Amino acid sequence: VKYFDDVQVGDVMRFGRYEVTREEIVEYARQFDPQPFHLDEEAAKASMFGGLIASGWHTGAMFIRMVVEHMTPVHATSGAMGFDDLKWLRPVRAGDVLSVESEIREKIESRSRPDRGTVKIESRIVNQRGEVVMSLVSLVIYLRR
Amino acid sequence: VKYWEDFTVGEVIELGSCAITETEILAFARKYDPQPFHTDPEAARRSIFGGLIASGWHTCALLMRLSVETSRREDAAATGSPGLDSCRSRSKPIGFIRRRNDLANQHGEVVVSVVGITMYQRRPAAAA
Predict the structure, then answer these.
(1) What is the rounded distance in angstroms from the CA atom of residue A79 to the CA atom of residue A140?
(2) Cβ(B83)–Cβ(A51) under 8 Å?
(3) How confident is the prediction for chain A on average, in pLDDT?
(4) Does A37 contact B80 at a Cβ distance shorter than 8 Å?
(5) Nearest to B48 among A35, A78, A85 (CB)
(6) Cβ distance of B89 and A62 shorter than 8 Å
(7) What are the angstrom distances between the C-alpha of A99 and each of A91, A121, B47?
(8) In this model, does residue A4 exceed pLDDT 60?
(9) Are B32 and A64 inside 8 Å of each other by CB?
(10) Angle A22-32/A56-70 helices, nearest 10 degrees?
């Protein structure tokens, strides 16, 4: 398991594989983001996106699923404080296969809690063509050795 | 229809409220964020959170739904988003206030003006 002390600025991790389906795009959108271009193929065709696309928050949910499956089990993290600079760069469509590239950007020791620190991690969610569809800088809480 | 031109800087828009149930917290977390403090009430009690908490991504999704419902109510011409500047979990009993402090002289002239962020403690639940 990697603690705060073990991760180094510049470390890059690549992980995850998430197949995006039409059913899941629509199911998520019905619950959380019921805009026509997330719900209905016909309405989406007439929109500026030219077809059905996943809610950006759904892409975020798929991202955290890959993080929890592949990174959390081997990193001593304790949740996150949030994130900065989230960008939805390209649409995510049914049939896309997503994966994650994460890079350690900065380590910040806690002044008040000597048992932990914050690590800024820049993540890029990439599709099967290598195009970045979403990026963000997470503020992840790591425990110290 | 409410277009870009119809919004004014400083305008405050109420998004309304929504309730969240344990069943919903568990269902979202099992699908997208299966960490013990989101999926297992017993394990959550023993965690640093002291009980089951919703995934932050679930909370953001609910905020999105309130935004979409409000847009629809106002007939706003919203058409997607390129991203977000920042997002922070605010589970700590601290609130932030951004305020401008003007220092004036005896003639009532502002001689210096600063904009800063101050952290305040929240009212304890027992004293609410």
Answers:
(1) 6
(2) no
(3) 96
(4) yes
(5) A78
(6) no
(7) 15, 16, 29
(8) yes
(9) yes
(10) 110
Q: Is the dihedral of CA A52, A58, A64, A65 positive or negative?
A: negative
In sequence order, what are the beta bridge partners of A100?
A15, A125
Six token digits for residue A56: 């950006």
User: Tell me, what amino acid is at A22?
Assistant: R
- What pLDDT digit, counting tens, does each position of A14-63 carry? 999 999 999 999 999 999 999 999 999 999 999 989 999 999 999 999 99
Mind telling me how many Å the CA of A32 is from chain B's nearest CA?
5
What's the CA gap between B117 and B111, in Å, rounded?
20
How far is Cα A109 from Cα A142, in angstroms, rounded to an integer? 10
Question: Which strands sit side by side in the sheet containing B83-88, from one edge to the other?
Answer: A12-19, A97-109, A116-126, A132-143, A77-88, B83-88
What's the one-letter identity of residue A92? Answer: V
Lowest mean pLDDT among A4-13, A44-53, A121-130, B110-119: B110-119
> Quick check: A49 and A91 in contact, CB under 8 A?
yes
Q: How many CB pairs under 8 A join A and B?
A: 83
Helix (H) or strand (E) holding A67: helix A56-70
Confidence at A67, pLDDT banded by 50, 70, 90: very high
Rg (CA), chain B: 20
Are B89 and A86 inside 8 Å of each other by CB? no
B38 sits in which H/E element: helix B36-39
What parts of chain B have a pLDDT lower than 70?
91-94, 124-128
Q: How many CB atoms lie within 10 A of CB A30?
A: 12
